[in-house]
Specification:
single chain, alpha/beta, Rossmann fold, GMP Synthetase, Chain A, domain 3, 3 domains, 9-stranded mixed beta sheet, 16 helices, binds xanthosine-5'-monophosphate
Length: about 500
């Protein structure tokens, strides 16, 4: 039976769920207002309360259904959840003069089964709060403290605990041990593995009368869904790949070959390069460019769908590569979180096409999708592909997108790829690409003066794209990249290496 993670709006809620799932237990994100009745009805066996941005001591702050506390279901409270458990059990929370942000040291002040297998008395934990529990409820004991927080961890019973720090964050030493201890004490079943993904995915696929339409991009999610649907409905599935002209070098050939290897029978490539270039003409603003691309995509896709259905029969379903984080962010359990950045790929398609949706990987995280893909026979080298934005190279060309600029950025990107491959670095860099900068600078080539545009090179390390760090690339590699780009790409006489982290910059340029 799964663990319910009640989401009070923390940026780390998905991390909690991922850690629990990594430990072999199914976990799902639910609204913070979930009642005990629902918890019982849906068969959840344990609850984790996430962090959140509110001040728990305010009377209008989100509260936990009191029935949950009155029951004997195991609970682990984290950050805001820690404070809520204290308040709702009769303790007290107050704003502290000094907040605690970043790595702090926790001292185990009282032995507890929550700290089993932790060999140290003092260890690093990740904190992010300014309120703290100043009075522990009657019957509960403080089990851990920091230099400014006496009650950084509390035990309520053999199966109820709360911690002010974030055990789900990598910086917390023994974070996974703590979560694992809670799961053991809660006696939840460890049956979440790749075989259960296969079961969930295939057992939920419906009987269909009509055909299934699916837009594929060459990305991991849509390819895994295409493979699932083609295994189940080999003759009914029609995959449409729109060549927007905004793809990387040799991309269309690569994807076509892959779909052949995967034995997907109906794979339609639509060449729409001209429509996209026309739609982008004169557009400079990043949001306008994204909108123009989204709108054109829908038009091209719809037209292609009509043509295919005239030949092969009506469509009944639209397949989509939605994964768990995409879904939660826009729905009730995610609504208390602050949106950092929203990406627009091809929103609006389902509404336009009036088809029923098939989203077989809607409950899975990216790493789970990769594991599933592997079992389904998708080559590992493909599953390790870097993320590529829906709007493609258009958002890696600052300013107006033209055929000439596309050619420049594509060739520069290809050179970057080749150099990093030669240097054995491709697997070590989370994402790398070239971007076109529409500024002209003076250079000298041979004995002549040049006055040309510039390329920026971005190479970042990241875990999930939410934050990113720059890569420490040897000077020899940087020089190889810049000299090849300047020598081989017409119209470029200067190469910049972007040395900005995210935040404050984003990974993409637009
Ligand atoms: P940012 O630029 O937000 O990018 O730091 C974070 C990650 O998301 C990718 N990205 C996108 N992916 N549609 C996508 O599917 C988009 O519109 C989009 N914009 C950015 C980006 O490549 C990076 O990995």
């Amino acid at each position: 039976m799964p663990v319910a993670v009640l989401n009070f709006g923390s940026q780390y809620t998905h991390l909690i769920v991922r850690r629990i799932r990594e430990l072999g237990v199914k976990a799902e994100i639910l609204s913070p207002t979930t009642t005990f009745q629902t918890i019982q009805k849906e068969g959840y066996n344990a609850i984790v309360l996430s962090g959140g941005p509110q001040d728990a001591y305010r009377p209008d702050a989100l509260r936990l259904d009191q029935e949950i506390l009155l029951s004997d279901i195991p609970i682990l409270g984290v950050c805001y959840g820690h404070q809520l458990m204290a308040i709702q059990n009769g303790g007290q929370v107050k704003r502290n003069e000094f907040g605690e942000y970043g790595v702090k040291t926790l001292k185990i002040s009282h032995q507890s089964p929550l700290f089993k297998d932790i060999e140290k008395d003092v260890f690093n934990v990740w904190m992010s709060h300014s309120d703290q529990v100043i009075k522990v409820p009657e019957g509960a004991v403080s089990i851990g403290s920091t230099d400014t927080d006496q009650n950084a961890a509390i035990q309520y019973s053999d199966t109820r605990f709360s911690v002010q720090f974030h055990p789900e964050v990598h910086h917390t030493e023994y974070g996974k041990t703590i979560i694992n201890n809670f799961l053991t004490l809660a006696k939840v079943k460890r049956d979440w593995d790749v075989n259960s993904f296969v079961d969930i995915v295939f057992s939920n696929l419906p009987e269909t009368k009509g055909n299934i339409l699916m837009g594929v991009s060459g990305g991991v999610d849509s390819t895994v869904v295409a493979k699932i649907l083609s295994d189940r409905y080999p003759e009914k599935l029609h995959c449409v790949y729109v060549d927007t002209g905004l793809m990387r070098a040799k991309e269309t050939e690569y994807v076509s070959k892959l779909f052949k290897v995967l034995n997907i029978r109906h794979f339609h490539v639509v060449n729409a390069k001209k429509q996209f270039l026309d739609a982008l003409k004169g557009k400079i603003d990043p949001e306008e460019k994204r909108k123009a691309i989204g709108k054109t995509f829908i038009e091209v896709f719809e037209k292609s769908a009509t043509e295919i259905s005239e030949k092969y029969g009506e469509f009944e379903y639209l397949g989509q590569g939605t994964i768990y984080p995409d879904r939660i962010e826009s729905s009730e359990p995610g609504k208390h979180a602050e949106v950092i950045k929203s990406h627009h790929n091809v929103g609006g398609l389902p509404e336009k096409l009036h088809l029923k949706l098939l989203e077989p990987i809607r409950d899975l995280y990216k790493d789970e999708v990769r594991q599933l893909g592997k079992i389904l026979g998708i080559p590992s080298e493909f599953l390790k592909r870097q993320p590529f934005p829906g709007p493609g190279l258009a958002i890696r060309i600052i300013g107006e997108v033209t055929e000439e600029r596309l050619q420049i950025v594509r060739q520069s990107d290809d050179i970057l790829h080749q150099v990093l491959e030669e240097e054995g670095l491709t697997d070590k860099i989370w994402q790398f690409f070239a971007a076109f900068l529409p500024i002209k600078t003076v250079g000298v080539m041979g004995d002549s003066r040049t006055y040309d545009s510039a390329i920026a090179v971005r190479m970042v390390d990241s875990i999930d794209g939410m934050t990113a760090d720059i890569i420490d690339v040897p000077k020899t590699v940087l020089l190889k990249i810049s000299s090849r780009i300047v020598n081989e790409v017409n119209g470029i006489n200067r190469v910049f290496y972007d040395i900005t982290q995210k935040p404050p910059a984003t990974i993409e340029f637009e």
